[in-house]
Amino acid sequence: MNLRNVAIIAHVDHGKTTLVDQLFRQSGTFRDNQRVEERAMDSNDLEKERGITILAKPTSVDWEGTRINIVDTPGHADFGGEVERILSMVDGVILLVDSSEGAMPQTKFVTGKALKLGLRPIVVVNKIDRPDERIQEVLDEVFDLFVSLDATDEQLDFPVLYASGRNGYANEDSSLREGTLKPLFQKIVDHVPPPKVEVEGTPFTFLVTLLDRDNFLGRILTGRVNSGVVKVNQPIHAIDMDGKVIETGRASKIMSFRGLDRVPVDEAKAGDIISLAGLTVATVSNTIADVSVTEAIQAQPIDPPTLSMRFAVNDSPMAGREGTKVTSRMIRDRLEREAESNVAIKVTESEDKDSFEVAGRGELQLGVLIETMRREGFELGISRPRVLFREDEDGKKTEPYETVVIDVDDEYSGTVVDKMNQRKGEMTDMRPSGGGKTRITFSAPSRGLIGYHGEFLSDTRGTGIMNRLFEKYGPHKGQIEGRKNGVLISNGNGEAQSYALGPLEDRGILFVGHGEALYEGMIVGENAKTDDLEVNPMKAKQLTNFRASGGKDDAVRLTPPKKMTLEQAIAYIDDDEMVEVTPSKIRLRKRHLDPHERKKASRAKQAA
Q1: What are the C-alpha distances in Å from 482 to residues 268, 282, 423, 429, 447?
Q2: Residue 556 above 80 pLDDT?
């Protein structure tokens, strides 16, 4: 059968998943009367809630006798590890760019990987029906981006289509605002080469790029068949990068992609993207092959993690009340399982065996992992993120830098530049982007950006957009000032009382409301001053038989407390604080709950 393998890459929210919906509809994958959810490829709960793609997922459509295997990829750089592996499965890429926002940092990251592998892109300018479209300038930006990424002449001669994914049309003429996606299908068939593989006379080989689990089939390995043919029940073995055999078994089930479903097939040939069951140990980047094969397929190297957090057993006085999975053994097993399927994450156990250092690409990636775990019933104590330092050839300390692209209303640009300077960011570009907005680009150490996003949204009244991308390891920038305000700390255990919370509102911003359970060392609010303050939010009014003068008691009117999301809490805490995460609550606390222990730790830190 005629076959094409293609990946769709784009920045967050540029419309990949919506475009795939329309490709399904117009290729006849769905019945006319079939009820299909919007963004059908975003299958897990977190993806639906956040409206972003987190996991790369293959699918396939049939169009006029050609099967097109499409891989929907995440747009956020934190999930770049998914994209780097996926690109080895495809022979071409569709680069989707918003007609107004243009080429963004994440676009640069993924496109660079694709061009390095020699893939020829098809550029689709999406959302051309936007009132603020600037199609020609966006195309110039894409061309400049390709040149800066050392694209070959062949890659620079890319075909362009103008589309609206939501309305389901794509054309070669930018002035048209109607039609179908037939030009896009045709362009994929004409421009993307069929897989260069050998079917006849070569043994079966297959590189694992995705790992999944099924309650009935066990471990499911997904990837592209590199050579030969595999049949159900054929003896196979898994070999690692060095050619060492990990395990031997049989291909108990072979599944091919048809639309949103995995369909069992009797055999699969070279070039096709399939899922395979039957092995219990093999994992991502292993080669699955006929038992006669001894040489592994070379897997793409994955960029190293730049950020780490400590995942600890929850040791607060409320531990075990809200979650079902609270032991270090359960946490270890879950993290090891995650590291197996997500090669961008590294897990190391601490010496005390009660905590684990989890390194990843960024706050969002680790935040999604924590959110997934709490929904599964885990209780955790999470530390502040810290960057991973390295040493260069001269033995000097280096740290990760990020390219930060900020779109902001002109009136707030001065504030943003000032704040980024305080965080040791260097401005590399500043230009008007139309509509009273300015686009500012910085090169900034990742360390200074931890916790800045919430402050940035406050400074820009919620109108600013910030995009970040790992740039390089550069010289260490020295001391960077963190959070300026101290916190209000509960001095005992009990329930928060309105009578006590009312006067505390003058001290700062409260994070808890009336009736919430508190414990000693728990953070109940932000102090208006720079130092930490221990307070008693549990003091109740003394009840007597005497009436208040004037005939009525003073009613306490509280401002609603500030409730933080998981990402905001992780970004907010300081080095001596933790986030307690349970299935139903997110609490902030001091690492040492006892005030004497806190003083001791603070003195030890100053002495060091």
Answers
A1: 55, 43, 9, 25, 9
A2: no
